[in-house]
Amino acid sequence: MSVISPPPTLPGATVRLLSGWRAKFVLLALIWGMSFVFIKIGAEALAPVQLALGRMLCGALPLLAVLLLRGGHLPTSPRLWGHLFVSALLLNTVPFTLFGYAAQLIPSALMGIVNASTPLFAVVFSMLLLADERPDRDRLLGLFIGFVGVLTVFGVWNSLGEVAVSDRDALVGMLLVVAATACYGLGTPYLRRFVAGSPHGALELSTLQLLLGSVPLVVLAPLVTDMPTGVDWRVVASVVALGALGTGLAYILQYGVVRGAGATVATTVTYVVPVVAIAAGLVLMGETLTWNQPLGAVVVILGAALCQGVLRTRRRPADGA
After folding, report:
1. Residue 142 burial (C-beta neighbours within 10 Å; 0-12, 13-18, 19+)
2. Which backbone phi and psi does 111 adopt, to 5 degrees?
3. 262-280: pLDDT as tens digits
């Protein structure tokens, strides 16, 4: 007599759901979208250099612990160390510091909106630095649309002569975020060109990158900043979340999405992050936005989707057609 197995219980089904790439995708978008709120809170008591240093150490140390527990070790090649140091400056040290300065001038939601231009810079620098990256119609159109979206976020139709002092601060803050995203855009193809061929795994490379990028901040922090005062639990929790979640856990989640759904799907998390950032800023921080900023974000995301091939203006002809 055969026994019919009972249907999966809710806990078992829930575990499988949460272990799938879709759950990782959502969690990754939430973590990266919330990171701008964490930056804003951290900047209330910490100087930008201190905030960047805390963020990187809180990201590097958990990764180092996981690496050692797995019996791994850091790469020893001096040449690789040099390339990872440059990558860390472009992808971590400099942009993290710039975000700290921007947080003193603009809302967290606006930082998330401007940060949506990162894929545009990545495409530009990839076409300039990588031989296998060539401009095509969709990419050029996407860059143009994305550029229009950035100008929309900035509200360029306002005459500079009529901009108030507070608006000038906002302009500087947005320019700082643009500079940070440009660093991301340059660092991505640099990493691909000089580091991607390494025999080491992503865990080893990411850990060493964060450790190397922390060195300049360790040197600079005591020279250019004073000991912070008035650091409460919100600031500490925000810095820990930025590092442990936004860098450490995010690495694991992103790898899981790439492995489960492919690199193309993984890149689309970039389009969800601004939505989370806007919602978090409005609900949790009580921030306000002008109408052009969310509209510009939509235009930027559209341009980025064209640049990355997620959207196409026309279908490619089938093979042999």
Report:
1. buried
2. -60, -45
3. 666 677 788 888 989 999 9
